[in-house]
Specification:
20% strand, eight-stranded mixed sheet, alpha+beta, Ribosomal Protein S5, domain 2, seven-stranded mixed sheet, 41% helix
C-alpha cells in the first residue's frame, strides 16, 4: 500500500540571490531599479553616493530619497516578502504617480552591488532599520532559515528611505576598470542615468500632471585618478533640442492620431500636421511619440554645434565630440511613466532594425545613429506591453510587434519629408533620372545662342557665325543618335526591371499549367505504352482528354508569355501606332489572377479605335507599375470597394489625357506637391525600391508624355498627358 502525504514548497536560501543577481541585467540595471523605488515612494529626488575608504579596500553605495518612507509593518510584510503583488493592486502611489515596480523583486537587485545592505526608513515619526548580509542566503539551505533583525524607534527625522550597500575592493575594481574604449562602468552609469530620465522629464505622469524627479550623483574618492569630489545633478545632453527634423504626436488605442512634423535646418518653416491611421486597434494602448533626426554630414555637424551643442561643463564641443555624442546617445527609447525600459533605446540595440532598412535604401531611410527619441507607453494593464522579468525589454507578444510596426510607420512619415527637403535643398546626392539628364547633357540650343552672341560681340561676320552654328548643329545630330541608343538601352533595362517586380504574378499564373503537366504527363506515358500493346479504343479514350488538357494548358503559357513579351524583349522595336485601350487592357490581363484574388475590378473607358504612336514596351512599363502599386495599397489598407478606372480622353486623332484612379488610401498631398514620389529610391512601401513610379515617369517621357499625380478624396489619381510645349 502506497504513502500519501502533503508537503509545502520551501524555497532554497539562495532564492533571493537568484531573483536579485541572476535576473538583473547588470550593475546599471540594479541602480535603476532602486532609483525607480525612490520614484514610487513619491520622492522629489534621489541621491546616489559612491564612497571609497582612504585605503580603497572598502566602499559603499548610498541611495536615499525623501519620499513617504515605510512603516515597520510595511517593511516586514511587504518589503521583506519577495514577489508581492502590492504594486499590482495599487497602481498609483499616494502622491498619484504611476507605480514603476510590478514584480516585487527590484529591491533584491542590491545583492549584485555589494556584500550587505542596511535599510533605514522613516514614516510617521518611526524609524525602521533592517540589516541584510547576502552571504547568509548562500549558507542557508532553506529561505525560512535566514533570520533578519528588524529594529524600530521613534524619531523626529523627516520621512524617506536610505539604502547603504557596502562591499570590498573587488566591487570597486568592477566599477573603475576601463574597457577597450577607455571608459569605466562609472562613466557608463552616468550615461545610463542621463538616458533614464531623458528626454521625458516633462511627461512623467500619465495624467499630464507637472511632476519632477531629479537624480543627483556624488562620487567621493572613488576613481583612482580623481581626488576631488564629483557632485552633480544628472542632466540630459542638450543635443535632444538641436534636431534637424522632428516628428511627434499621439496615437490612440484605435490606431488613429495626429503627428506634427517640423524642420530646424531651414528658416521660416511651418509645422505640418499629418493625420495617421494604423488601420485598426493597435493593442498597445495610447502612445506618445517624439522622434528627432540628425544629419551626419560635415556641414550638418557644424550646424549642430553652431545651434548650441555644449558638453557637461558648458563648453562648445568640437566636431569629433559631436559625432561621438550622436554615436553614443542615439536610439529610440521606450518609456513608461518617465523611465526607460532597457535595452530599448541603447545605441547598440537596434530594436527597429533601422540599419537593415537603410542598407537597402540609404537615400531615403535613416540609420539608428541618426535618431534620438522616445515612445511613451501606458501601464501594462492598459497597453498589453509587458516587461520581461529580467528587466531586459518587452515580451515579444502581438502588442510589441504592433509597437514596432507603428514606430516604423511614424518614422517613415519623417523619412519621406526629409528626403523631399534634402532633394530640393541639394543636400543629398542627386538621384539620376535618365530622361532628364539626357535632355540636359545633349541640349545644344543654349550653346548655339551663347556662341552667336559672343561671335557678334567679337565682330565676326554673319556668314562665318552661321558656319560655326552649322558645325555645332551637326555635332548635335551626332550626339542625338548616341542619345537615342542610350535611351533604348535604358528602356530595355527598365522593362526588365518592371518584369522582375511582377515575378510573383508570373509564377502564380504559370503554376496551374505546370502542375497539370507534372501530374498528367506520367499518366499520358502510361496510357500511351498501354495503347501500343493493346491497340484498343478504351485505352485511346484515356489518352485523348489528357492530350486535350495539355493543349489547353500550353495555350495558357502561350498567352502568358505573349502578354509579358513587351517587357521581356531584349531588343526594342520601332514606335508604331497602337490601339491604346486594347493595349492597356492587355496589361491588366497580366494581373487578372491577382486582381481576382484581391476582389479588384477594372473599368476602361474611351474610344476603342483610337491609335497612339508609341513604344509598346513603354505603355506596358507605365501601367504595370501603376497597377502593381494599386493592388498593393488597396490590399494593404483593405479598401471596401476595390476598383481601378481608366479614362482615355481624345479629340479626333489627338490624345488629350489618360486618367488613372484607384480606390486605395491615396497619396499624401505633401508628397504630391513635392513630386518626390517620382524620384528614384523614394518609396512609401516597406522595403520598396522606389523604382516603380520613376520608371513609369521615364517611360512616359520617352513617348512625349508626362505623368502627374493629383490630390483626390478617393484614392490615387494619376494623369498621363502630352508634354506641354513650354
Amino acid at each position: 500500500m502506497g504513502t500519501k502525504e502533503s508537503y509545502s514548497i520551501r524555497p532554497a536560501g539562495r532564492h533571493i540571490l537568484t531573483i536579485g543577481r541572476d535576473l538583473i541585467q547588470d550593475r546599471y540595471a540594479a541602480i535603476v531599479e532602486l532609483v525607480k523605488n525612490a520614484y514610487d515612494a513619491d520622492s522629489p529626488n534621489v541621491n546616489i553616493i559612491f564612497k571609497a575608504s582612504a585605503d580603497r579596500k572598502h566602499y559603499s553605495i548610498i541611495i536615499e530619497d525623501h519620499g513617504h518612507g515605510m512603516s515597520r509593518d510595511t517593511v516586514i510584510n511587504k518589503w521583506m516578502v519577495p514577489s508581492t503583488d502590492d504594486k499590482l493592486k495599487r497602481r498609483k502611489s499616494p502622491g498619484g504617480r504611476i507605480m514603476q515596480g510590478r514584480k516585487g523583486v527590484g529591491r533584491y537587485a542590491a545583492s549584485i552591488l555589494g556584500d550587505d545592505l542596511l535599510l533605514e526608513t522613516v514614516a510617521d515619526s518611526e524609524k525602521t532599520t533592517v540589516y541584510v548580509e547576502w552571504s547568509s542566503f548562500e549558507k542557508a539551505q532553506y529561505l525560512d532559515e535566514v533570520e533578519i533583525l528588524v529594529e524600530s524607534e521613534k524619531t523626529d527625522l523627516p520621512s524617506g528611505t536610505r539604502l547603504t550597500i557596502t562591499g570590498k575592493n573587488e566591487h570597486i575594481n568592477e566599477w573603475v576598470k576601463k574597457d577597450t574604449q577607455g571608459k569605466t562602468q562609472i562613466d557608463k552609469l552616468k550615461f545610463e542615468l542621463k538616458k533614464l530620465i531623458s528626454p521625458v522629464s516633462s511627461i512623467l505622469s500619465e495624467d499630464g500632471a507637472n511632476d519632477t524627479f531629479r537624480i543627483h550623483l556624488r562620487l567621493e574618492n572613488f576613481l583612482e585618478s580623481q581626488e576631488e569630489i564629483i557632485d552633480e545633478d544628472v542632466e540630459p545632453y542638450p543635443i535632444f533640442d538641436l534636431f534637424d527634423y522632428r516628428i511627434a504626436g499621439r496615437i490612440g488605442a484605435d490606431g488613429k492620431g495626429i503627428l506634427t512634423y517640423s524642420l530646424q535646418k531651414a528658416r521660416n518653416t511651418t509645422e505640418e500636421k499629418i493625420p495617421f491611421d494604423f488601420g485598426g486597434p493597435t493593442g498597445c494602448g495610447e502612445l506618445f511619440f517624439d522622434i528627432r533626426v540628425y544629419d551626419r554630414e560635415k556641414e550638418a555637424i557644424e550646424s549642430l554645434i553652431g545651434r548650441g551643442l555644449k558638453d557637461e561643463s558648458g563648453n562648445y564641443v568640437g566636431k569629433l565630440q559631436a559625432r561621438r555624442l550622436l554615436n553614443e546617445y542615439n536610439g529610440i527609447g521606450v518609456y513608461r511613466n518617465g523611465f526607460r525600459i532597457r535595452p530599448l533605446g541603447d545605441a547598440d540595440f537596434d530594436w527597429l532594425k533601422l540599419n537593415e532598412q537603410r542598407v537597402q535604401n540609404p537615400s531615403l531611410r535613416i540609420g539608428s545613429n541618426q535618431v534620438i527619441g522616445y515612445v511613451q507607453i501606458q501601464s501594462e494593464d492598459q497597453s498589453n506591453l509587458i516587461e520581461k522579468s529580467a528587466r531586459d525589454g518587452l515580451r515579444e507578444n502581438p502588442a510589441y510587434e504592433n509597437l514596432k510596426d507603428l514606430t516604423k510607420k511614424v518614422i517613415a512619415k519623417l523619412e519621406e519629408r526629409r528626403f523631399a527637403y534634402r532633394q530640393k535643398a541639394g543636400l543629398s546626392r542627386r538621384t539620376l533620372k535618365v530622361e532628364r539628364e539626357l535632355e540636359r547633357l545633349f541640349s545644344f540650343e543654349e550653346l548655339r545662342r551663347n556662341v552667336r552672341v559672343k561671335l557678334k560681340k567679337g565682330g565676326i561676320d554673319e556668314q562665318t557665325a552661321d558656319e560655326i552654328i552649322r558645325i555645332i548643329s551637326k555635332e548635335e545630330e551626332e550626339k542625338n543618335r548616341i542619345v537615342e541608343d542610350i535611351r533604348q538601352t535604358v528602356a530595355i533595362y527598365q522593362g526588365q526591371a518592371t518584369l522582375g517586380k511582377i515575378i510573383n504574378v508570373i509564377l502564380h499564373e504559370g503554376r496551374r499549367p505546370l502542375n497539370y503537366f507534372k501530374n498528367q504527363i506520367p499518366n499520358l506515358e502510361y496510357w500511351f505504352n498501354s495503347f501500343q500493346e493493346k491497340q484498343n479504343s478504351e485505352t485511346l479514350a484515356k489518352i485523348i482528354p489528357i492530350a486535350e488538357g495539355i493543349g489547353r494548358n500550353a495555350d495558357v503559357f502561350v498567352k502568358l508569355f505573349s502578354r509579358l513579351d513587351p517587357l521581356a524583349a531584349g531588343k526594342r522595336s520601332k514606335k508604331r501606332p497602337l490601339l491604346l485601350r486594347k493595349t492597356i487592357a492587355e496589361v491588366f490581363e497580366v494581373f487578372s489572377g491577382e486582381m481576382q484574388k484581391n476582389d479588384i475590378s477594372v473599368e476602361i473607358s474611351g474610344f476603342s479605335e483610337f491609335e497612339f504612336t508609341c513604344w509598346h514596351q513603354d505603355i506596358y512599363a507605365i501601367f504595370t507599375n501603376l497597377i502593381d502599386n494599386s493592388i498593393y495599397w488597396m490590399s494593404e489598407k483593405q479598401s471596401p470597394k476595390k476598383k481601378i478606372t481608366i479614362d482615355i480622353v481624345t479629340d479626333r486623332n489627338e490624345l488629350q489625357y489618360i486618367d488613372y484612379r484607384d480606390t486605395g488610401p491615396g497619396i499624401e498631398p505633401q508628397l504630391i506637391a513635392s513630386e518626390v514620389i517620382f524620384e528614384p529610391q523614394f518609396s512609401t512601401k516597406p522595403g520598396g525600391t522606389g523604382l516603380g513610379l520613376a520608371i513609369a515617369g521615364e517611360a512616359s517621357s520617352r513617348n512625349g508624355l508626362e505623368l502627374k499625380a493629383f490630390e483626390s478624396e478617393s484614392g490615387a489619381f494619376f494623369r498621363l498627358q502630352p508634354k506641354s510645349e513650354n
